[in-house]
Automatic annotation (TrEMBL):
PANTHER family: AB HYDROLASE SUPERFAMILY PROTEIN C4A8.06C, ALPHA_BETA HYDROLASE. This is Prolyl oligopeptidase family protein. Keywords: Hydrolase. One of its GO terms (molecular function) is hydrolase activity. It comes from Asanoa ferruginea. Residues 34-227 form the BD-FAE-like domain.
Length: 273
């Protein structure tokens, strides 16, 4: 009898190896990142820092822990990795517009120096100089694309995995039962300015190479959002690669056990060299 394929949802709950360090980039309890570092340099080149921005529809019930397996797998490939936490939404939670977005900017800008200090203290290889690569999944993919389009500094590259790439359309589809409303505090009519500022679509051509990977069988975030984003971004002069994975769902993209993982790592390498 053939072995059963692993359930990609397991990646949300199975414990991952602990990080090498936890660093703080700000004063709030959520202003932290898990740092994982290779033991030695892999190959002749120094790998750039990879900042992982987790998904979970921006909600407080989901945190960076579920990207631990992805991060550990990237470290095994030679990348230094920081899993960024940020303020999120929910009862009593302080996230939403603009706090969540402010956190992403502050964290991405602070992490290269923080991770370099951790590497020095542990005697590990330091990340390559320069801005980090961003890897974001789902809502984290939205935040990675948004950072590339709107933050003061450009990342080295962006890999967006099944991103929520159109907030107005995600609101219309009512993804995850009001997730966008919770993020932005209302609908596109009553909160038009917030929606305009929080959309990831660039108003100018993107300054960073960008790859989107999205499964055609994704029911959490329909691939139509990535198709629409890629088409609109290209029309505005941005160079975007959209890799569509047939019969792949939402969570396979962050599960190193999945057949889709090879496509994810190929996409990440395409941003580097």
């Amino acid at each position: 009898m053939p072995a059963r394929e692993p359930d990609p949802r397991d990646v949300l709950i199975l414990p991952a190896p602990p990080p090498d360090a936890v660093v703080a980039y700000g004063p709030h309890l959520d202003h932290v990142a898990d740092v994982r570092l290779p033991l030695t340099r892999s190959g002749p080149l120094v790998a750039p820092l990879v900042v992982v921005i987790h998904g979970g529809f921006w909600r407080a019930e989901y945190d960076r822990a579920h990207t631990g397996h992805l991060a550990a797998a990237l470290v095994a490939l030679g990348y230094p990795v920081a899993q960024l936490e940020y303020r999120r939404t929910g009862p009593g939670a302080p996230g939403g517009w603009p706090a969540t977005f402010d956190d992403v900017v502050a964290g991405v800008e602070a992490l290269p120096a923080l991770v370099a200090a951790v590497a020095a203290s542990l005697g590990r290889p330091a990340p390559a100089p320069g801005p980090p690569l961003l890897v974001g999944h789902s809502a984290g993919g939205h935040l990675a694309l948004w950072y590339a389009a709107h933050a003061p500094s450009a990342p080295a590259g962006v890999l967006a995995l099944a991103p929520v790439a159109d907030l107005a359309e995600a609101h219309r589809l009512d993804l995850d039962g009001g997730a966008v409303t919770a993020l932005l505090g209302g609908d596109p009519t009553t909160r038009a300015a917030a929606y305009a500022a929080a959309e990831p679509l660039p108003t100018m051509p993107l300054r960073s190479p960008t790859v989107i990977v999205h499964g055609t069988a994704d029911v959490q975030v329909p691939i139509s959002l990535s198709r629409g984003y890629a088409s609109a971004a290209r029309a505005g002069g941005s160079e975007i690669t959209l890799s569509e994975l047939p019969n792949v769902g939402h969570f396979e993209l962050i599960d190193p056990r999945s057949a889709a993982w090879r496509k994810v790592t190929e996409a990440l390498r395409s941003l580097q060299w």
